[in-house]
Design brief:
Number of domains: 2
Distance between the termini: 31 Å
Number of strands: 4
Radius of gyration: 16 Å
CATH topology of the largest domain: Alpha-Beta Plaits
Strand order of the largest sheet: 2-3-1-4
Structural class: alpha+beta
Strand content: 15-25%
CATH class of the largest domain: Alpha Beta
CATH architecture of the largest domain: 2-Layer Sandwich
Largest sheet: 4 strands, antiparallel
Length: 155
């Protein structure tokens, strides 16, 4: 079975260069033979279960050995589709939240974008396949930022 893992290492670097904990985690994933998509706020890797699961341990070890204070990790089956809530779609929920917050989601402040993500989660928006990408586009942020907003709210 193919799996997808998405991970974000912290602290974030604001100087423009990816921190060592992020690049070393990426290197560990590549060395394991995984397909990698490295982004400014996180990394997505894909591979067969037999490759990916043991590699996750090496990715975590590399991140913490190189200065990570926290790693957020999500693993799912590649192509897994969650059953959506009846009677609504992500775009309808985005419109509801935009109306609640009084305007365009992309024009909101960072704090209000975080609030929008929490409202969307409460409404079940993340039950839809590829919803994080749709939400990220509406907010004008990356999907990793959306995941970070969700993860920080759960801490």
């Amino acid at each position: 079975m193919r799996l997808v893992a998405e991970f974000t290492t912290e602290p974030f670097d604001v100087e423009g260069q990816p921190p060592a904990h992020a690049t070393k985690a990426l290197e560990a994933a590549r060395e394991a033979g995984l397909e990698c998509d490295f982004g400014p706020l996180g990394t997505s890797v894909r591979g067969e279960e037999e490759l990916l699961l043991p590699a996750v341990s090496r990715v975590l070890e590399a991140a913490f050995a190189n200065g990570a204070s926290q790693v957020s990790l999500q693993v799912r089956q590649d192509g897994a589709v969650r059953t959506p809530r009846e009677g609504s779609g992500v775009n309808a929920l985005l419109a509801e939240v935009a109306a609640e917050l009084g305007g365009s989601l992309s024009g909101l402040s960072r704090g209000d974008k975080q609030r929008a993500v929490l409202l969307l989660e409460a409404k079940g928006a993340f039950e839809y396949r590829k919803s994080a990408e749709t939400v990220a586009e509406a907010l004008g942020v990356t999907r990793f930022t959306v995941y970070n907003y969700l993860n920080r709210a759960r801490d």
